[in-house]
Design a protein that fits this description.
Shape: globular
CATH class: Mainly Alpha
Helix content: over 70%
Organism: Hyaloscypha bicolor E
Structural class: mainly alpha
Pfam family, one: TPR_10
Protein name: Kinesin light chain
Order of helices and strands: HHHHH
């Protein structure tokens, strides 16, 4: 539900509050599910997108690298989500 709120804040252009909600969601997902649960990794990736749109690339880069490492570990190197993350990371660099 909070992820939907963050999506709504994105549509409204409220970057500051969207980033705050995305960070909160990530903290809760880590606590509830653990670091390698798919929902936690999706929350990390959502935060990266928000940070990137807000121009916070220095903060987004290590999080995106962590997303890639977790997707490789969980899904494997040839999974479409892993390959998309590799592409997104390369585009960030």
């Amino acid at each position: 539900l909070l992820s939907k709120l963050a999506d709504f804040l994105d549509i409204c252009g409220d970057f500051r509050n969207e980033m705050m909600v995305r960070r909160f969601v990530l903290i809760k997902h880590k606590a509830w599910y653990g670091e390698t649960h798919p929902d936690t990794v999706i929350s990390m990736d959502d935060l990266v997108v928000t940070l990137g749109r807000g121009g916070e690339l220095q903060e987004a880069l290590p999080v995106k690298q962590a997303v890639l490492a977790k997707r490789q570990q969980i899904l494997g190197k040839d999974h479409p989500d892993t390959l998309r993350t590799m592409h997104d990371l390369a585009a960030t660099l």
